[in-house]
Amino acid sequence: MTTVAFIGLGNMGGPMAANLAKAGFNVRAFDLSAQALETAKSQGCEIAATASEAATDADFVISMLPAGKHVRGLYVDGDAPLFEVIKPSALVIDCSTIDADTARQVAAAGAEKGIGFVDAPVSGGVGGAQAGTLTFIVGGSEAQFAQAQPVLQAMGKNIFHAGDHGAGQVAKVCNNMLLSILMAGTCEAINMGVKNGLDPAVLSEIMKQSSGGNWALNVYNPYPGVMENAPASKGYQGGFQVDLMIKDLGLAMDVSQQSASPVPMGSAARSLFTLHKAGGNGKLDFSSLLKLYQDKSE
Amino acid sequence: MTTVAFIGLGNMGGPMAANLAKAGFNVRAFDLSAQALETAKSQGCEIAATASEAATDADFVISMLPAGKHVRGLYVDGDAPLFEVIKPSALVIDCSTIDADTARQVAAAGAEKGIGFVDAPVSGGVGGAQAGTLTFIVGGSEAQFAQAQPVLQAMGKNIFHAGDHGAGQVAKVCNNMLLSILMAGTCEAINMGVKNGLDPAVLSEIMKQSSGGNWALNVYNPYPGVMENAPASKGYQGGFQVDLMIKDLGLAMDVSQQSASPVPMGSAARSLFTLHKAGGNGKLDFSSLLKLYQDKSE
Fold first, then answer.
1. Does B198 contact A at CB distance below 8 Å?
2. Would you tell me which residues 152-191 of chain B have a C-beta closer than 8 angstroms to some C-beta of chain A?
3. Distance between CA atoms of B1 and B201, rounded to whole angstroms?
4. Is A103 on the interface with B (CB under 8 A)?
5. Which pLDDT tens digit goes with each residue over B32-74?
6. Which of A136, A151, A134, A139 is nearest to A58 (CA)?
7. Residue A292: is its pLDDT beyond 90?
């Protein structure tokens, strides 16, 4: 039986670990939160007292952590670095969204000990994590990508090989920067049309079928009432928080700075989402950016 | 037999008139260019000595002109305003991309004489005009929209009713502003990915199937070689010129200004396309904006 250690059982990691257990993997879960561990246990995971206990002798080690420093601390330079206990034939799959440099450095540190490491950030949100329909964007060798397949398929639907180590993080950050741009542009275009007398649903349909067509118009319309199941029609609850988009745009700015890549549109989008957060909207779904554009009473 | 007067036989109007003649309409064509008239004649149109001669007794009058002042001059306040000669049961279909205010004013001037007028700007470019697959975005009453159908169907594929007079122009300008934003964002994201070691085709495919998906990635990839038939793979020849995008973004800025609609992303995109034009690229396809982002040798 294949043993998978799963470190980090938050809103994303919790349901991902549960899907692995449901698919028949022997999942050894660890988190700092006792409540998260209880939930994991009720969903068929073994629970471990420490990350080291979870990772020892595991065939795969998956991590889902907030930022690069946590990933580096867990594997390389924390109190009990997992690269000291993971067996050489195992593969580490880090699903955290972190900076590409850290991903490359941790991969290199693993390689020194003969341990494989891929970056495999996800998109698809909490809903995708629960439904097992996440998208994984993987950076690593062809052999490592092949090795990761059975585990990733138990948690996701689309699994892409972006390139070598770090490429998964770069591709994710490019995608999410583009997403921020097209969501801001969509909010802006719909708002201008509505202020000029157009029906938001009619205008959305025209643009969706024309050259303005994009993911937001297809599945995530930011105007309340146009799309029944979109966060916009549920008070902008659920979905992908403004705070998380701002985190990803910060990573995009880092990549831009390190590589001297011009990002005028991404920078503008980042400013808009940050203005929107300053207005007290950090916990709302990111499509609530529409509210920043709309007229308030004077 | 239904007679259609067609005024303005440029790169777009010429093939549109030819498609009407091919569909069996009696087309009376007029243009200031003798050569355009010759071409129209060879494609089955009657040619008229003046716009008034073409429009007198016609069932439909179609115009395809560069800007609002030309449309107003043709119908309302020029030397020989067509509203003096068009019969009241006729419908005027103005396919020019002009400002919404002029469209509304000309519609009102027509209504005073009992002549119907709809704004019906197109998208789909010269290729769409030739193939008869244009998109028409129509502003006018329900009855006028219905009346225009047989004529528009002979020239286009998707025919949308955006709303009342002027709504066609507003919807087109919203769409094209959004298009400029998503093209700039797509150029920016691909360029940053490539500078960080990713393959442009692999990154494009990942974003296309993820939340960065948009029309440019689907049918108009700006990176040379990714999409065989896109202008990017043909030296950015053909397609939709930077100069025309800048014209449409100027109209978007007018709509924004008149309605106090905030357009930070559209303004940023307009600045980028204008910088690109300043670099001597006004006649290239608009996806050539990628070149503005790419490194040149120092």
1. yes
2. 158, 160-164, 166-167, 170-171, 174-179, 181-182, 184-186, 188-191
3. 52
4. no
5. 999 999 999 999 999 999 999 999 999 999 999 999 999 999 9
6. A151
7. yes
Tally Cβ neighbours within 10 Å of residue A154. 17
**From A216, which residue of chain B is nearest by alpha-carbon distance?**
B211
ipTM: 0.95
Q: Which residue of B has its CA nearest to A265?
A: B185
Report pLDDT for B159. Answer: 97
One-letter identity of residue B97: T
Give the fold, CATH level 3, of A3-164.
Rossmann fold (3.40.50)
How would you classify residue A102: left for phi > 0, otherwise alpha for psi between -120 and 50, otherwise beta?
A: alpha
Distance separating alpha carbons of residues B104 and B3, to the nearest angstrom: 25
Of A195, A210, A261, which is closest to B259 when you measure between CB atoms?
A: A195
CA dist., res. A51 & res. A8, Å (int): 9
Asked if A174 and B214 come within 8 Å (Cβ–Cβ), the reply is no
Domain residue spans of chain B: 3-164, 170-293
**What is the residue-wise DSSP string for B128-176?**
HHHHT-EEEEEES-HHHHHHHHHHHHTTEEEEEEEESTTHHHHHHHHHH
Nearest to B112, CA basis, from B76, B68, B59: B76
DSSP secondary structure code for residue A245 in this structure? H
Determine if the pTM surpasses 0.90.
Answer: yes
Of A192, A203, A215, the CB nearest to B211: A215
Which site among B210, B249, B257, B292 would you substitute to test the A interface, given the most A Cβ atoms closer than 10 Å to its Cβ?
B210
Bridge partners (DSSP) of residue A241 are A285
Fold of domain A170-293: N-(1-d-carboxylethyl)-l-norvaline Dehydrogenase; domain 2 (1.10.1040)
**Could you give the residue numbers annotated as active site of B?**
172
Q: B30-60 burial string, b = 16+ CB within 10 Å, else e? A: bbeeeebbebbeebbbbbbeebbbbbbebbb
